[in-house]
Design a protein that fits this description.
113 residues, alpha/beta, Transcription Regulator spoIIAA, 5-stranded mixed β-sheet, 4 helices, 5 strands, 40% helix
């Protein structure tokens, strides 16, 4: 799992590559989100376009990050999850919890409004 953070205006974009699974960067996602929230970011976009697999542990990390963001009054949204990841989110009925965008420009525009 590779994670990098870009900052565009007042939006933190977290780019993922690889797998979000048990044993592969356990608790990395919540740590990154907590760091961004502590730095004052209220708009977080998780770019899942290069994430090719997520297991139940990874799903738990996503949900935990969403709940933490809400507690801080922040908005955490998803960008372009790959088919396999989107299917997993759909099958577990977690997809409706998240706002999902197909393009980064669409997401950035939505954050502005």
């Amino acid at each position: 799992m590779n994670i990098s953070v870009r900052k565009t205006k007042d939006v933190a974009i977290v780019d993922f590559a690889g797998r979000l699974a048990v044993g592969v960067g356990d608790a990395v996602l919540p740590a990154v989100v907590n760091e961004l929230l502590d730095s004052g970011f209220k708009k977080i976009l998780l770019n899942l376009s290069e994430m090719d697999y997520i297991d139940s542990n990874g799903l738990g990390e996503l949900v935990q990050s969403l709940k933490t963001s809400r507690r801080y009054g922040a908005s955490l949204r998803l960008l372009k999850p790959q088919d396999r990841v989107a299917k997993t989110l759909r099958l577990t009925n977690l997809l409706p919890m998240f706002t999902v965008y197909d393009t980064e420009s669409e997401a950035m525009h939505a954050f502005e409004s």
